[in-house]
Design a protein that fits this description.
This protein is an all-alpha fold. Helices cover 68% and strands 2% of the residues. A two-stranded antiparallel ribbon has the order 1-2.
């Protein structure tokens, strides 16, 4: 609806002639015609139309098409927490070696860190549906071929070769965030809520996915987890990409090169890499410390804390500085260290729950900053670079946490690693001035 053209006059702001006659009838009788109505006199919604819901998440999903693409994306994202656990269980059962299973899955992650940004660049250039569907089908086929190789107990080199094929998996979370960024590009509050919801969804899928995979593999057969994950992944991508009304339009080709050249991007990715080390080290250290059937549920409390904090953070009207979030993370990551020093498993569970509450706000703030730094025509590629940095940090943190768990001078020593990594991320953020640079939108 066009806004009134206000013109300054000696008597004060008056409505332009073409709006004056229509507007003057709506003014209260006790007011002068040249004064604007008080906000309390103005209805919140046009007659006959319901007022928007007060809950920011309800307002988010009141937008046409958002529920459909979110449902498809959640179906596609759940297998991201299933593939790794399913492959480890499947390979270990067939070959009797967890070392081999870990090496094979690590190979898939390493190759994916290279191919991910390339696939995201194609998505930016040709559209989500045109690239994501064949990439997802190719990745699902790779998982099925890996399943057949494991079932037939082929030579080990075939497992490494096959798992590299699965690295064409498109970044479904990044594509979903790109849709929110397109839909609410002029509404920062709604975009903040959308980013918080996406982070909470990430935590929920990575919390439920491994449990679902382990149940399938143990209750049915070792290959059941991989088979189910491949079917869910491909089906979810098909549902997601079928929602064309919310798909971002293909932006004109840009000569800007990689988003890495955007001001402030490289320091932000360095901070994300260091933050990834927090997550990787905490997971391995906690599993090694608990070392039993309750290790999974205890570790899941960290994801539960992050999910709850993410949903609460999405209701906030302001986004905190990344430096503030990292400072909170450095403090809260010390909670598992203090709890482990008591030797109480219940205290450790509470410490992990508190530590997880810093994860989602940090990631929401970092992703929001990345969306502002990255040119709009390269948003999917920028998201993929962030995921690559996080995965590299997770891998480094996992290796460091594993070494600490094996060579620790005392039981709780390993929990020093995530505290140190969070402190390093905070120092790096403050030293490089991440979040204070220019913001680019093209």
């Amino acid at each position: 609806m066009p806004q009134p053209d206000l013109t300054l006059t000696p008597a004060g702001p008056a409505l332009a002639p073409r709006y004056r006659d229509r507007a003057s009838h709506a003014l209260p009788r006790h007011r002068e015609p040249h004064t604007l109505p008080h906000p309390r006199d103005t209805p919140h919604a046009p007659p006959g139309k319901p007022s928007p819901p007060a809950n920011p998440y309800l307002r988010l999903f009141a937008h046409p098409g958002t529920r459909a693409f979110t449902a498809g994306n959640l179906i596609a994202r759940l297998p991201m927490g299933m593939f790794g656990v399913s492959a480890v269980i499947m390979i270990a059962a067939a070959y009797g070696s967890y070392a081999l299973a870990g090496a094979v899955t690590a190979t898939g992650l390493a190759v994916g860190s290279v191919t991910g940004p390339l696939i995201a660049r194609l998505v930016d250039r040709y559209g989500q549906a045109r690239i994501a569907v064949p990439a997802a089908a190719y990745a699902a086929l790779g998982h099925l071929v890996l399943l057949l190789c494991v079932h037939a107990r082929t030579p080990v080199w075939a497992l490494f070769l096959t798992t590299a094929v699965t690295a064409t998996t498109p970044n479904t979370g990044g594509m979903s965030r790109a849709r929110w960024a397109h839909l609410f590009r002029d509404d920062p509050d709604a975009l903040h809520t959308a980013n918080a919801f996406e982070q909470a969804a990430d935590e929920l899928c990575y919390m439920l996915g491994p449990v679902f995979a382990a149940v399938l593999c143990s209750a049915l057969f070792p290959e059941a987890g991989t088979l189910t994950a491949a079917a869910l992944f491909l089906g979810g991508v098909l549902v997601f990409t079928a929602q064309r009304s919310t798909e971002p339009p293909i932006a004109p080709r840009t000569t800007a090169g990689s988003p890495l050249r955007a001001p402030g991007m490289a320091p932000l990715l360095a901070v994300l890499l260091t933050t990834g080390a927090v997550f990787g080290s905490m997971e391995v250290v906690a599993l090694a410390y608990v070392d039993g059937p309750v290790a999974g549920p205890v570790l899941a409390l960290q994801a539960a804390g992050s999910c709850a904090a993410g949903l609460l953070y999405g209701r906030a009207h302001r986004t905190a500085r990344l430096r503030t979030c990292l400072a909170a993370m450095a403090v809260l990551m010390a909670m598992p260290l203090l709890a482990a020093s008591t030797g109480s498993l219940l205290a450790l569970a509470g410490g992990l729950l508190l530590a997880g509450m810093a994860t989602a706000p940090t990631m929401v703030t970092a992703m929001g900053l990345l969306q502002r730094l990255t040119p709009a025509a390269q948003l999917n590629e920028g998201m993929s670079l962030a995921v690559t940095a996080l995965l590299a940090g997770v891998a480094a943190g996992s290796a460091t946490g594993g070494w600490a768990a094996d060579h620790a001078p005392f039981a709780s020593f390993g929990f020093l690693i995530p505290v140190t990594a969070a402190t390093a991320a905070l120092i790096l953020c403050a030293a490089t001035g991440v979040g204070r640079g220019p913001r680019v939108r093209a």
